[in-house]
Amino acid sequence: MTECTQRAFGFGGPGRREIVARFDGGTISSDGGALLLQEVERRTRIIERFALCFADRRDACRIEHTTRELVSQRVLGLCLGYEDLSDHDALRDDPLLCALSGKCDSSLAGKSTLSRLELSTSEADRYKKIALDTDAVDALLVDVFIESYTSAPSEIVIDLDATDFAIHGRQEGRFFHGYYDHYCYLPLYIFCGEHLLCARLRSSNIDACAGSTDELAPIIEKLRAAWPTTRITIRGDSGFCREEILGWCEARGVDYVIGLAKNERLIAQSQYFLGAAQCAFASSGESEREYGELCYRTLDTWSRERRVVLRAEHSKHGDNPRYVVTSLSEEEVDAKTLYEELYCARGNMENCIKEQQLDLFADRVSAQTLRANQVRLYFASIAYTLMHALRRIGLKDTELERAQCGTIRLRLLKIGARITLSVRRIVVALSQAFPLQALFARVVDNLRALPAPSA
Q: Within a 10 A sphere around the Cβ of 316, how many other Cβ atoms?
């Protein structure tokens, strides 16, 4: 590359001295903490297995960047906060990112090469010879979740939710959504705790629960194969209260706890509990809640009568009833516990979705085709999975154990480092002024306590 004279930036300094700054520091990286991500990758092989989901039909003698290197570069870039492909025209020469992506003696790929990777099709063609197997990526997300357990859990709760990805162009599958009041996609997310099991991009001209059973079926199949005795419960808001899902769960021995939208018939059957909450409010002057349950069946959509749990609340704003339909019996869990401890816990999934959108840029869906935007969502999903593995394994029992990805990046990954390359070693001199050196060392110890998988 042509070496140009660097522009100098003058700043006021102490006394008569002037501070002069230039972008000419040499082999320096601002992401020294990315070494921790490499340690996570060595233990989990998340990026390596994700790269295997791409079928590369290029001539190996005519390529400069392997699929593994391209995938590593993009995933690590997202983890480190570089959301735009244009960032990589400069990042491609970052010595540490080069080393972690598998290159030491040459630069990484530029934005155009990475863009072709994201625009890959289901089958390789003349111009896009790298094809992504989406089923393999879906299976990988479930495999990583199963591997996080050393033994089969007695029970798990799987959360479903839909959200909006705003669209500002003329992308394929663009529709206006009345609830969100803008043009958007309507992706379906499936989580178990903080583990991402599925992220499916969809057009927004559909019902929120559309295709949910199609996405759940392979997940439940893999979980049942790995953990035959584990009890599985599906949880979702009222947007997923459809006979298709309820009947599907009942036919397969899967429990469910799903919100139910209120209506006149439900409210009429709830008058005893609503009246009790009103009387309690009249006595205390504070918001009061009563819990109960009903046997309920819709007029024409449900195939059978089902247990519905009611939370009757009355405050200065009036009645505010909430309903949840469930397959769990009263002997297994009472109404109050089911609503407050089981159903309301689904709110944590919304935090996970926001974390992926805000910190790992999952909602950057500016590509023209729906498939290309799905590929971008997969990259963000793998980046989230890698960061969650760092939090789950490396940050266990530390002050950042519950930190979000953005906080982990800011406090633990953004470390100034000078890189020295030699024939035998790559020396990373981390900033001596980094304030969390003890935490960094503890994370390394936690990660190395987990044995690396055999080749």
A: 8
Structural domains in the chain, sorted by start: 9-134+367-448 (no CATH), 148-355 (3.30.2170)
- In the predicted model, residues of the chain with pLDDT beneath 50 are 1
Amino acid at 323: Y
Residues 6+ apart with CB under 8 A from 354: none
Q: How far, in Å, CA of 131 to CA of 55, rounded?
A: 5
**66 burial level (CB within 10 Å; 0-12, 13-18, 19+):** middle
How much is the pLDDT for 450? Answer: 85
Does residue 395 contact residue 114 with C-beta atoms inside 8 Å?
no
Query: Residue 58's pLDDT is what?
Result: 87
Residue-level pLDDT at 443: 96
Q: How far apart are CA 210 and CA 231, in angstroms?
A: 24
Query: Dihedral angle at the C-alpha atoms of 201, 203, 205, 207, nearest 10 degrees?
Result: -20
User: Cα(320)–Cα(397) distance, rounded to whole angstroms?
Assistant: 40
- The runs of H, that is alpha helices, within 318-414 are 335-337, 347-360, 370-389, 405-408
Task: Give the pLDDT score at 3.
Answer: 54
User: Which parts of 212-367 are beta strand (E)?
Assistant: 231-236, 255-260, 288-296, 306-315, 318-319, 322-326
φ, ψ for residue 293, nearest 5 deg: -150, 155
Categorise residue 303: left if φ over 0, alpha if ψ from -120 to 50, beta otherwise: alpha
Please say whether the beta carbons of 184 and 168 come within 8 A.
no
Apex CA 301: angle with CA 325 and CA 201, to 5°?
Answer: 75
For Cα atoms 134, 135, 140, give the angle at the middle one, nearest 5 degrees. 95
